[in-house]
Specification:
about 10% strand; globular; alpha+beta; binds heme C
Length: about 220
């Protein structure tokens, strides 16, 4: 079933994106990389907030509202380089919602994440994922760099001195890790009782408010 959904979604993606493929122009300069990575992470955080708070709402609109709340800026107000990247992410949301409404994939959180990740990789060469020390999907298994900082974030939680994010400029890429904390609204799926099934059919982890759920990890190629 999942395989079929993936094939359908990939063919759809291919048809949607092959024509304007060479016109994406979402390259990011070294100077703009830190803010673009941050806006992208906030976009993901907005996605979770919207899913958690408005199960019945218009997700595309709610994500943009949450983005304004978290970043203080609307998409149109972002610097042009960041805006182009986030526009691609927003198109991926549209495709995910289309596929979900058609019934191709029931698990909307998973579909949304994968769709944004695929589109950003395909169109902009940007790698995004959501690693966690207790990942639901093996795709979100942290690499050694992510694991090191996730463990640091967790220690900070215990001490209650929360570091906000970790950024690092390497030769031709900018890496960024933005922690995602558990809020009350996430508990519906990630809270207790541990081991019971949430609405998407996954097992709840038994997190509590203010725990570290995971992070958004961004690898941006820079010029
Ligand atoms: C409607 C249920 C639902 C709600 C509400 C929800 N999540 Fe999730 N979450 C999921 C599902 C399903 C996955 C697995 C997605 C996948 O396979 O990529 C997931 C995965 C994640 C991951 C990736 C790590 C992993 O386990 O694979 C993070 C990070 C995350 N959620 C954060 C949050 C945060 C933060 C909130 C609250 C603001 C939240 N979620 C609310 C269903 C939910």
């Amino acid at each position: 079933m999942l395989k079929k959904a993936l094939i359908v979604s990939n063919i759809f993606l291919f048809c949607c994106w092959i024509r304007p493929l060479f016109g994406a122009h979402c390259g990011v300069s070294r100077e703009r990389a830190p803010e673009t990575a941050r806006y992208l992470a906030l976009f993901f955080a907005s996605g979770w907030e919207a899913i958690a708070k408005y199960p019945q709402g218009d997700l595309k609109e709610k994500i943009q509202e949450e983005l304004v709340r978290l970043s203080g800026k609307s998409l149109e107000e972002l610097p042009p380089e960041s805006q182009k990247v986030l526009q691609e992410a927003l198109k991926a949301v549209e495709i995910a919602l289309f596929l979900h409404q058609r019934g191709d994939e029931k698990d909307l959180p998973r579909l949304l994440g994968r769709q944004i990740e695929v589109i950003l990789a395909f169109r902009c060469g940007i790698r995004v994922k959501q690693p966690s020390l207790r990942f639901r999907d093996p795709y979100n298994r942290p690499d050694p760099w992510e694991k090191r900082f996730l463990e640091k974030f967790e220690v900070e939680v215990v001490k209650d001195r929360r570091i906000s994010a970790k950024g690092s400029l390497e030769d031709s890429q900018y890496r960024y890790l933005y922690p995602l904390w558990v809020h009350k609204s996430c508990l519906r799926c990630h809270g207790g009782p541990q081991g019971s099934r949430d609405i998407t059919g996954h097992l709840r982890e038994g997190y509590r408010e203010r725990d570290l759920r995971g992070a958004v990890s961004v690898v941006l190629p820079v010029y």
